[in-house]
Amino acid sequence: MQENSTMQASGSDNFKGPQVTIGLDLGDRSSNYCVLNAAGDILLEDKLPTTSLAMKQLFGRMLRSRIAMETSTHSPWVSRLLTDLGHEVIVAHAQKVGLIVKSRKKDDRLDARTLARLARIDPELLSPVQHRSAEAQIHLTEIRARAELVRARTALVNSARGLAKSYGERLRKCGTQQVGRELAMGLSAELRAALDPLMREIESLNEHIKEYDRRIEKMAKDTYPEVKLLKQVKGVGDLIALGYFLTIEDPHRFKKSRDVGCFLGLQPGRRNSGESEPQMHITKEGDRYLRTLLVQGAHYILGPFGEDCDLRRWGQKLAERGGKKAKRRAVVAVARKLAVLLHRLWVSGEVYEPLRNSQKVARAAA
């Protein structure tokens, strides 16, 4: 193999013939890349800044190539940019590429080389994922930003309650959205003064969260009217429906609605060998926040305000089996069923019938 400096001098013109395969290991400041020819020989290994300008200058001069990268903070925008330049882009699931994750000789240069070699042999070895569009990502960013504010509010409210208890006093019970300076009126003057800035910060977060709620409601109504199909299920509001819609984005990427449960990590893992079939926990792969939203929806469906429906009846039967974790398992199982149901309603456009299966059984028994 030639030295780096010699290959750099020749630029990208050396691989403008047959399609080449490129492994791109994305870093925060700079990224390593490795270029292979059709025979698998290394044509070039080098670095470039992780900026849109540098990407365009390098990859914009090349003919259509296969470029492989791992999922990362920068992979969404980089994959869209390279696709727009006409390249075939493969985004590998970062946790499923064992040759990289479990390697004992791991560095950015070798990672780029491994990505290129795997992409050249068989892209399926990279467990490719599909990034969402720029529009879906920016709208989903609003939902994620709201989630961060909710998380910050919860932490501050817990801190306020803990500080009050350590002084021998208590804030009365209420929802986090009701916490503010008014709630502290029952405290002693000195404790109220000490907690006043904290309470004002919580009030500010409440206002910002309400603003996000209004924006999400408007987005669901004006930009994505399809979410009405998902909101037919009682317990699925604008937040869950829109989060589901934007995360999945393309419902036809799944051959069957049941595949959505696996995609979101709500399916139990499997490690069967011979006659051994151990019971595994759910995989927890896929989007963690959407999984959280679906679990919240499942809690509502199984809770005191959930309407009578097939999902609720099925979940209650699971919970009645007993055991310390029966209720928790029932919630997760209902969340998985909910994910499947929402996908089915989305692709079919059907009117939701809460007791459809129960009515079928009743008619068959009559």
UniProtKB/TrEMBL annotation:
<protein>
    <submittedName>
        <fullName>IS110 family transposase</fullName>
    </submittedName>
</protein>
<dbReference type="Pfam" id="PF02371">
    <property type="entry name" value="Transposase_20"/>
</dbReference>
<dbReference type="GO" id="GO:0006313">
    <property type="term" value="P:DNA transposition"/>
</dbReference>
<dbReference type="InterPro" id="IPR003346">
    <property type="entry name" value="Transposase_20"/>
</dbReference>
<feature type="coiled-coil region">
    <location>
        <begin position="195"/>
        <end position="222"/>
    </location>
</feature>
<dbReference type="GO" id="GO:0004803">
    <property type="term" value="F:transposase activity"/>
</dbReference>
<dbReference type="InterPro" id="IPR002525">
    <property type="entry name" value="Transp_IS110-like_N"/>
</dbReference>
<dbReference type="InterPro" id="IPR047650">
    <property type="entry name" value="Transpos_IS110"/>
</dbReference>
<feature type="domain" description="Transposase IS116/IS110/IS902 C-terminal">
    <location>
        <begin position="228"/>
        <end position="299"/>
    </location>
</feature>
<feature type="domain" description="Transposase IS110-like N-terminal">
    <location>
        <begin position="22"/>
        <end position="166"/>
    </location>
</feature>
<dbReference type="GO" id="GO:0003677">
    <property type="term" value="F:DNA binding"/>
</dbReference>
<dbReference type="Pfam" id="PF01548">
    <property type="entry name" value="DEDD_Tnp_IS110"/>
</dbReference>
<keyword id="KW-0175">Coiled coil</keyword>
